[in-house]
Amino acid sequence: MTDSDYEQNTRGGKADSLAEFEQEHTGIFGRLHSALHSHPAIVPLLVLVVAVIVFGFLNPNFWRVSTLSVIFQQIGIVGILGIAQGLIILTAGIDLSVGAMAVLSSVLMGQLTFRYGVPPTAAIALGLMAGTLMGALNGILVAKLRIPPFITTLGTWQIFLATNYIFSANETIRNQDLQAEAPSLLFWGSRFEIFGARVTFAVVLLLVLVAVVAYILRATAWGRHVYAIGDDLEAAQLAGVNTSKQIIQVYALAGFFCAIAGWVMIGRFGSVSPSASTGVLGNIQAITAVVIGGISLFGGRGTIVGMFLGALIVGVFEMGLRMAGADAQWTYLLIGALIIAAVAVDQWIRKVSA
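-> structure tokens emitted (354 positions)
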């Protein structure tokens, strides 16, 4: 039998029917599962819309542009740390040191400028480089020495925080000194007006970073390798992905974003403080934004846009409850419930997909 005879005999016959896959929909729950599996950001988007509507009815001032502008400013640091944390969790890892890296980077920028006389621009560059190296160190420990990410970053979190206090001698650099001698350190806290609302450059930076990282993850081979490693490490290795190199790159890039968050912290708080709360709370806040945003803690599923929506949900809840006169503890209660619900949805999707 020639090749043309074979094709003629098989075309439209059993060979074609064997290659067909019929997509079955099992009612409304099947369709819902399919939609959530394809678009993990749907849930946080719905929660965000409902929260904005509810808080708007509770207090009409909530819908004012100025209020929404304040929410964006409040999530600036958490959003950038969430990008770093999201990249790592997509590889099925976790980084408990993101907050410490941000604070240590900011302290390096400030102390190099005021104690050692380094020009502010050079100090910023060195701070960004230090954050990248700290992230790369985490990546090397995870990828080369095979130390679990939780243990690795739990250790480096304390090392970075201790280094932060030792290097700075627990000294805070005041806003007056920054404005007089190093205004570039305060750059991301600068404001401009749009539609009557005052917006900081940090908000613009956050939106740009979310757009760029979302594009990289969706449209480049590097981004697809990140998802492949998080979904199945061994399969990614068999497919030819240099997983160790990729993991180190992801952790280094996360460290770079943490250093940027540290620079934003200086502009946001108007000072350089080694005891900034971000060093401790930044880790929890970033993980919260990631989980609520639909990125799976088991890796390989989720989007940076979803993380951004998760950070917005936290900001909307905090502002909405405050304007409604509710006790601050209600924020933690609702955020905790959202985290459990987000993980439950993720588990349901994985169980049905298995």
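The chain has 17 helices and two strands.
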